[in-house]
Amino acid sequence: MTNKDIALKTLAKISKAGFSDASTRVVAEEFHELQAENGAINLMRTNFEIDVGITGIKDHKKASLSVNKTDHETLEKTVDNLSDMARGASPDDAYGIAEMQPAEAFDAGPGEPDYDRMYDRIVEVQDYAKQQYPDLHFGSVAITFGNRRSVYVNSNEVQFESRRGVYRVSTMFTSKRGKQTSSMNYFNYSAYDLDTPVQDMVNADALMRQSTEQIDTRNIPGKFTGDMIITPNALGSFVGFLTGKISDAALISGTSVFKDKLGESVTSDKLNLRSCPVADGVSSGYWVTGDGYKAENSTIVENGVLKSYLLGLYGANKTGLPRAVNAGGCYQIDEGETDLEALIGGVEQGILIGRFSGGNPNDRGDFSGIAKNSYYVKDGKIQFPIKETTVSGNMVSLLNSIKAVSKERLNFGGSILPWVLSDGVIAS
Amino acid sequence: MQIAEIDLSKYSNQYSSYTELRLHENRLLNIALLNGDIVSNMQDTNGGVSARVFDKGAWGFSSNPNATNDSIETTIQAATRNAEFLAKRSGDPEHTLPRSQASASSDSNTQKPRKTQDEIIAFLKGIDTYVGDHCPDIVSRQVVLNCLDMEKKLQTSEGSSGHNTNSRSIIAVKLTTRNEAGEPIELSQAIGDRGQFEDVFETPERIHTAVDEMYEHLMNKKTAVKPVSGYHDVILASDLAGILAHEAIGHTTEADIVREGSIAGDYLGEQIASELITLVDFANSHNGEILPMPIYMDDEGVESHDAILIQDGVLKSFMHNKDSAQHFNMPLTGNARAFSYTDEPLIRMRNTAILPGKDKIEDMIASIDDGYLLMRPTNGQADTTSEFMFGVQMGYEIKNGKLGRAITDTTISGVAFDMLKEVTMLSDEMVWGCAGMCGKKQPMPVGMGGPAVKTKVFIGGE
Asked: Is the pLDDT of residue B261 over 90?
């Protein structure tokens, strides 16, 4: 039985159980991994995974279940459980499933892993680091390949099928000289192929070099309020506040600082933020949302103006606001007009932040955390790597204070992000 | 077929070298109420079989969601092939593992009749109603239930075998109000324990009590002041000591992190903390009490032992799996755990705690002229340098030995090996937390605990 057969048969069972609205998603993946630890490739993994997710709405009551078995007995029992779960739920008119859309199939990436290349790329980056940066120590380097097939069907006759084969590279490293240790750092990305050496991707070479520099760190000269250059590797921590506060939970609860801000300026006009799950070259994207809609790319912030919330179907129905055309993620910030060198050159005093280790910002956006793998910048020049430096401020203010966005960007496979210069951050 | 019904010993003739064969199922229940509406009502059951094979220093791993006879055999064969592939390319014949043989069984399933979904939702709605009735000045409320059962059956080629189930049930409550400027002010707390819902939440009283206390703190937080950034004398309340033990020290003493360059590797046997500090990663129980995450045998078939990491301020040992114990020539501790059937065991903490002292919390507060009482952690992170941070969502000024105004959310940080030397008082109470979910390649539920701690840390702020 194909995964599509399983999805359709399960959907029929849910409908037969009396659910007026039903959906089924079957995801099957062959997963392969090679991992090196402490310099030696010591793990080879082959996993076969499957997940069957079902959702049903009956009398405006909703329940969801997922299991990773596809035998008849398990699926029968799962649908029975779904009925029990829905019975106990509360009715809510906002529950729904995607409306009828034309059937479509999507396909991207290779179907099989190239184990030799995976092996060779790991050896190559470790050898490169050993030669170039003898103090650097890779705790782990892993390359995985996943070939994922998905089927989504619902009772409004929506049928989507997709397949994507993608490599993912992840690393963790520190540098050590005597008893001096750098802060750990890492880089991750995804790609459809392994044509490019790992050390040439996502600023990896610079991060490895910086790691060895960060064995010897210094305190900043004293507490100051100044600029912060957020590297692409750290930018996700800051973009995440904005995207989180324009999503279902924050908007339904009414606690979002971006409530009633659609069409209004919420950031500096230098920021253009998009969610692009189906853009060319995005290897970690998706074609179908969790609600069962064909995903489209969207503009979230254009020249500082909030153009779209990230509401799913439930959130949209609950708030009366438009449903987003995708489920978020795959964030891209448009390239700016400033060379990275000029961007740094314009900083009177500030921090170049390579990694943010901080507490979750509160609902107001107040944040505070440690600037890891970071540098002190003075008079337009990077001065030295820093230690034990806390940066604090407010996310809303930070986004509104963006002064420049770099021309250079890094493509992580899912997101494409530049260096961003903002100010008003307290460093202490 | 249920895990209990499958006999793994019959596959032992298929092992060509050291092999772990594991049946593993995670069962998750998640129900979330947002302002009374059910925004999540879902169950997830995820399980299957995995095999891990060791050959000349190389590990082969494979997993399959189906635990049929054929798929178990296929999984062993695939893992064996993977190990052989790596062993041929980069194997080290001298690389061996310490042997172990253990057996353990534990069952966290309730003996009470299971609650129906209707009854559980009614319980949560009751809590939601209580919050609505007793917290008049809030603008938003969330009540979220997470119940997790982890069932594992293990057989190793060295003869270890076991069948263990660990469960925990947590209800997280988040309250949001607004201050005079109309800005949202929130506070959240996780309440729960090891065990299934029926055993942990027999009655709602403990949650009512927690909600009442949260609401009082939230009202104080409406007029909170920002803390002054810098190093301060602080009392870390007992609910913060657990995350201090886990993040600040625990991670640096996991032997795989030590091999990656953790600073702890250079200080074994040295005084790294005040003599008041003894820190242990308990396997399963302490003082006759079963702890939040009891582990009797790990996923490498090693009997779990307490790992005394710091004793009277001296760094004594690390937490190990088989490979790291071999590397460091240290005793096995039984810390290797996998989160899912698709995962290999990693070195993970179990129940990590600073042991209590003899001081009274009132005396500790009275001993500070200008500092802070810090309570209620949010997230936390560690580093190989032992530099740690964690978020703090509730706290108070201490002025002249007395509690003052509430403070806004902040982040505290420090270098653990420095901060521990500054510890001058420990309270005589021991508080365990059960809601920790550690993230280190794989998620993993952990227990953590400790007393209130007087020390110095860096506080972020203005």
From this structure: no
> For residues A401 and A318, what is the distance between their CA atoms, to the nearest angstrom?
33
Contact of B443 with chain A, judged by CB distance below 8 Å, is answered with no
A186 to chain B, any CB pair closer than 8 A? The answer is no
Please list, in sequence order, all residues whose beta carbon lies within 8 angstroms of the beta carbon of residue A379, skipping any fewer than 6 positions away. A348, A349
How many contacts (CB atoms, under 8 Å) link A and B?
244
Question: What mean pLDDT value characterizes chain B?
Answer: 95
pLDDT in tens, A373-396: 999 999 999 999 999 899 999 999
Whole-model pTM: value is 0.94
- CB < 8 Å to B376, chain A: none
Please determine, for residue A185, whether its predicted confidence score (pLDDT) is greater than 80. yes
pLDDT single digits (tens) B322-364: 999 999 999 999 999 999 999 999 999 999 999 999 999 999 9
Task: Flag whether residue B34 sits within 8 Å of chain A, measured between CB atoms.
Answer: yes
B150: closest CA of chain A, how far (Å): 15
Q: In this complex, do B46 and A51 lie within 8 Å of one another by their Cβ atoms?
A: yes
Overall average pLDDT of the B392-413 stretch: 95
Residues of B in contact with A182 (CB under 8 A): 261, 384-385
A164 to chain B, any CB pair closer than 8 A? The answer is no
Report which of residues B170 and B182 the model is more confident about: B170
What residues of chain B, 40 to 69, have a C-beta less than 8 Å from chain A? 40-48, 57-66
Instruction: Return the residue of A nearest to B50 by Cα.
Output: A47
How far is A415 from A204, CA to CA, in rounded Å? 16
C-alpha B143/C-alpha B172 separation (Å) is 6
B379 contacts A359? CB cut-off 8 A: yes
Q: Give the relative orientation of helices A72-88 and B117-134 as an angle to the nearest 10 degrees.
A: 30
ipTM, two decimals: 0.92
Reported as a pLDDT band with limits 50, 70 and 90, residue B462 is low
CA distance A293 to chain B (A): 19
pLDDT at B46 over 90: yes
Assign 3-class secondary structure to chain A: CCHHHHHHHHHHHHHHCCCCEEEEEEEEEEEEEEEEECCEEEEEEEEEEEEEEEEEEECCEEEEEEECCCCHHHHHHHHHHHHHHHHHCCCCCCCCCCCCCCCEEEEECCCCCCHHHHHHHHHHHHHHHHHHCCCEEEEEEEEEEEEEEEEEEECCCCEEEEEEEEEEEEEEEEEEECCEECCCECCEEEECCCCCCHHHCCCHHHHHHHHHHCCCCECCCCCEEEEEEECHHHHHHHHHHHHHHCEHHHHHHCCCCCCCCCCCECCCCCCCEEECCCCCCCCCCCCECCCCCECCCEEEEECCEECCCECCHHHHHHHCCCCCCCCCCCEEECCCCECHHHHHHCCCEEEEECEEEECCCCCCCEEEEEEECCEEEECCEEEEEECCCEEEEEHHHHHHCCCEEEEEEEECCCCEEEEEEEEEEEEC
Chain A closest CA to B290's CA: distance in Å? 31
In chain A, whose CA is at the least distance from the CA of B1?
A74
* Tens digit of each residue's pLDDT (9 = 90 or more) over A216-257: 999 999 999 999 999 999 999 889 999 999 999 999 999 899
Question: A336 to chain B, minimum CA–CA distance in Å?
Answer: 31
- Digit-coded pLDDT (tens) for A72-123: 999 999 999 999 999 989 999 999 999 999 999 999 999 999 999 999 999 9
Chain A CB within 8 Å of residue B74 CB:
no
More confident: B62 or A368: B62
- Please check whether residue A132 is in contact with residue A28, taking contact to mean a CB–CB distance below 8 angstroms: no
The whole-angstrom distance between A116's CA and the closest CA on chain B is 11
Query: Are B261 and A64 inside 8 Å of each other by CB?
Result: no
